[in-house]
């Protein structure tokens, strides 16, 4: 097996999560509250960033994938947001508090307008949260907000969000990119064209209008998207005049663009290319410890992967540390459970699957799979393809023959989301830093398909545990329920957690102000030369 140079760097990050008590009010600091103007910002030349793909949709209610979130978080803002230090703070809300078990009150920022001049107010919040939960709309991110029972307009700048039962994770869910507020005028236009025979969830994609520091300028499908600075932004304006996101699927091409100053930033960077960029005088690397999980998934509705014994044996056969050492030059941590250590709900007390190829062989032989089988494993980028080749060799020792099938990002999501796959290599970032998002989306049967459960896993006991955890009112109860659910998931292995990667971004040496959320999307408002 091909060996790569082993290089290990230890980076320490302090992940601070702000918890809101039942009666505690969270208020924003006054700094940067709408008094700055574009003239105060440091204006730089336009910034270009090369990514794997352009967005699948610029409607935050229609997409839940990395290429879309990378762009959308710069156009749209939610009531609350994560800071680069991973605290939840008010954004379009000035403050919020839980006023009873099922009611959250949000005091909204006054004087904010959407990019099209439509005022942001309580009616706009209601319009957005009603739309994302509208069953006729069928938003793939609706599961994030399905516990909202009603959104009530108290006055122009006050809104009450009532949940079906107590839901401690509501602020975290509202901080997800799907909580970004869309201009009500564009939402109205989307409903109107749908009533005239058009397709729902299309008008916002054609005309994305939010309140964020950047506004949509133009798109060339599959090629690039350009955003320009919102000169009327309510807070401190963006420091760059514009951001262009280019679709560059090939790693070598992205690196060449960075090296020749054609691109100012590139993401992702394969770990094996880290040194090349970091050692150049003209470029540098940013490394962020992530709450992403890279995993091998099965289609649990297809034989032989409908048999937990097969899935468990494959999980036992894969040497995760070898993948990290030989393929990722050490820039990752072994994932033994679905949740990264920084995520609420992570547990060190689970019985995890140990690497033991001989035990895997015996398990297959005992259950009638001694002769093995042939299957397809679907991937969408170079790193996943390399991992698939590693696994292909590992499983070949067990008479399991894997055929690697590589697709570009959009086709991959359609293919795997539609259940056409046998096995696949996927990733999931727990954006909310809460187990509800990290587990409910991936393993609850209501989310089978594009919402997140691409393994098509269905277990009534897991569903019940995840449902109960959503309504638990204290952290200890929630943790116990999530631990029990995770143990069942590990025992049945609908997916195999492989590693938590370091997020690697290449930058020009003169680029400043960049930061990255550990679920992968980028903080770009302060980026400049």
UniProtKB/TrEMBL annotation:
Gene3D superfamilies per UniProt: Dipeptide-binding Protein, Domain 1 (3.90.76.10), Dipeptide-binding Protein, Domain 3 (3.10.105.10), Periplasmic binding protein-like II (3.40.190.10)
Keywords assigned by UniProt, alphabetized: Signal, Transport
UniProt entry tagged with the keyword Transport: yes
Domain Solute-binding protein family residues, every copy: 87-449
Signal peptide residues on this chain, from the entry's feature table: 1-18
Source superkingdom: Bacteria
InterPro entries xrefs: Peptide/Ni-bd, SBP_5, SBP_5_dom
Annotated family: Belongs to the bacterial solute-binding protein 5 family.
Protein name per UniProt: Glutathione ABC transporter substrate-binding protein
Species, as recorded: Salinicoccus bachuensis
